[in-house]
Amino acid sequence: MSATKQQQAPPKPLPFQWQFLAGAVAGVSEILTMYPLDVVKTRFQLQVGTGGVDGYKSIGDCFKKIIKNEGFATLYRGIIPPIMVEAPKRATKFASNEQYTILYKSILGPDVNMQGLAIMTGVSAGITEAFLVVPFELVKIRLQDKANAGRYNGSIDALSKIVRAEGPLALFNGLEATLWRHAMWNGGYFGCIQGVRNAIPEAETSNGKLARNFVAGAIGGTFATMLNTPFDVVKTRIQNQAKGSHMKYNWTLPGVAMVYREEGFRALYKGFVPKVLRLGPGGGILLVVFDTVSALIRKHVLLETA
User: Fold this and answer.
1) The predicted structure's pLDDT at residue 275
2) Rg (the chain; Cα; Å)
3) By three-state DSSP, how is residue 303 classified?
4) Total H helices, total E strands in the chain
5) Domain encompassing residue 157
6) Measured distance CA(70)–CA(40) in Å, rounded
7) Is residue 10 part of a domain?
8) Would 216 disulfide with which of 31, 90, 196, 253, CB 3.0-4.6 Å?
9) Closest of 81, 80, 65, 77 to residue 143, by C-alpha
10) Which of 170, 163, 21 is nearest to 88 (CA)?
11) Would residue 2 count as lying in a domain?
12) What is the pLDDT of residues 243-276, one digit of tens each?
């Protein structure tokens, strides 16, 4: 058994265009499955304190009030910007992670600690990804906010009104907070996946490999969400501040300190449960779909043999 395992080398990275395709399919699959939880997460993160009479007390209460007061379709309000960016975003996540792996191995040598390498490549991939997603995240947040229900008629309308009223650079409000959020999530996600894979024995069957990947991805997604939620709370509040309003939140770390000081430690984890319910299983879905699509490309397009 040990000799067999020694002979099994990890497959060479796919060419960039196929990494991009596999990441895109994985990302769109995850968002179509889990998006309503993202709406609920944003509502909690924008809620200061308990939100008063109309505040949300739990995930179930939030779902119930949204559907009752605003209609079922509201659970998918703002989905167009993330779908538009999801393909390049997830493709960038996986493709840049693999490219950074090649780069850092060439610099640090083949004997580098694999978990440390996974964390470094994850953080680097997260920073790369963050620059891409900021404008889409801002439009999505504005659309998801209940207070903006009558202000924007859709994604294009929201985009044009934000640019007209606040200027094109407003689309990059929250960039610094987004860098924190994505660096922390990707570093935690890929680093944890490497640790879980080291701890779980190799699977002998295709179903076993899928299960192993799902478990690793789900644990990685959960751990990464624990790391980055405080930064996500502040990012959401920064991006929801329109020009001309009181700009209470500006920079990430002072914003984290302000939320903690004014609302307590628990406020830094507002929206954590719907977020982790999305990104825990969502991380598993991402990894399984990415690896499955990559395997299909290797077999049927690149004609590689196992």
Assistant:
1) 84
2) 20
3) coil
4) 10, 0
5) 15-301
6) 13
7) no
8) 196
9) 77
10) 21
11) no
12) 777 789 889 999 999 999 999 999 999 988 888 8
- The reported pLDDT for the residue numbered 9 is 54
**Residue 51, in any domain of the structure:** yes
Question: What are the residue ranges of helices labelled H in 145-205?
Answer: 155-166, 175-199
Q: What is the pLDDT of residue 60?
A: 92
End-to-end CA distance of the chain: 18
**The dihedral sign for the CA sequence 195, 200, 204, 210:** negative
CA-based nearest residue to 184, from 237, 228, 152, 235: 228
Contact (Cβ atoms closer than 8 angstroms) between residue 96 and residue 125: yes
pLDDT tier at 10, thresholds 50, 70, 90: low
pTM, two decimal places: 0.74
Cα–Cα distances (Å) from 297 to 23, 30, 134, 303, in that order, read: 12, 19, 30, 8
- DSSP character string of 29-95: HHHHHHHHHHHHHHHHHH--TT-GGG---SHHHHHHHHHHHH-GGGGGTT-HHHHHHHHHHHHHHHH
Q: How far apart are CA 65 and CA 164, in angstroms?
A: 32
**CB 95 within 8 Å of CB 72:** no
Given a cut of 50, whether residue 110 has pLDDT beyond it is yes
Tell me the CA distances in angstroms from 137 to 16, 181, 276, 282, one per residue in order.
Answer: 25, 12, 18, 18
CATH number of the domain that residue 77 is part of: 1.50.40.10
In a domain, 237, yes or no: yes
Domain count, the chain: 1
Q: Are 140 and 156 in contact (CB under 8 A)?
A: no
